[in-house]
């Protein structure tokens, strides 16, 4: 029996490797009352205009929405209803005139909820 096998491997220890921290865009759903839900989009970089994105989301999905200023998260886009997959498709669509060259990679988007 080798002593190497007795070493403790902590899976929750911080990885101090040379990996770059990724700036993810988080798309979450929040339950309101009853069947009502909110979709929140946060973590967008400064090169994206939240006002323009909100206007496009409202027009595309026929829903209402707003921009919330949060001291920790920055600007958070809130949309009424469950639009998580639609928002991800919108943000990653390179082919159409929606996002074009500003489209995000699917690896940079995290969808949370249910």
UniProtKB/TrEMBL annotation:
Q: What residues does the SUI1 domain cover?
A: 25-95
Among SUPFAM superfamilies, the record links this protein to:
eIF1-like (SSF55159)
Q: Per its UniProt record, what PROSITE patterns does this chain match?
A: SUI1
Q: Which UniProt keywords apply?
A: Initiation factor, Protein biosynthesis
Query: Pfam families, alphabetically?
Result: SUI1 (PF01253)
Provide a Gene Ontology MF annotation, just one: translation initiation factor activity
Gene3D superfamilies per record: SUI1-like domain
Q: Is Transport among this UniProt entry's keywords?
A: no
PANTHER family linked? EUKARYOTIC TRANSLATION INITIATION FACTOR SUI1
Q: Which family does it belong to?
A: Belongs to the SUI1 family.
Q: What is this protein called?
A: Eukaryotic translation initiation factor SUI1
Taxon lineage? Eukaryota, Fungi, Dikarya, Ascomycota, Pezizomycotina
């Amino acid at each position: 029996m080798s002593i190497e096998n007795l070493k403790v491997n902590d899976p929750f220890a911080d990885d101090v490797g040379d990996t770059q921290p990724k700036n993810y865009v988080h798309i979450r759903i929040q339950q309101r009352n009853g069947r009502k839900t909110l979709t929140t989009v946060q973590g967008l970089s400064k090169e994206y205009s939240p006002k323009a994105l909100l206007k496009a989301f409202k027009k595309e999905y026929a829903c209402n929405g707003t921009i919330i200023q949060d001291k920790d998260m920055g600007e958070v886009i809130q949309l009424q209803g469950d639009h998580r997959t639609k928002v991800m498709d919108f943000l990653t669509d390179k082919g159409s005139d929606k996002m074009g060259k500003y489209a995000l990679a699917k690896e940079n988007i995290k969808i949370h909820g249910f």
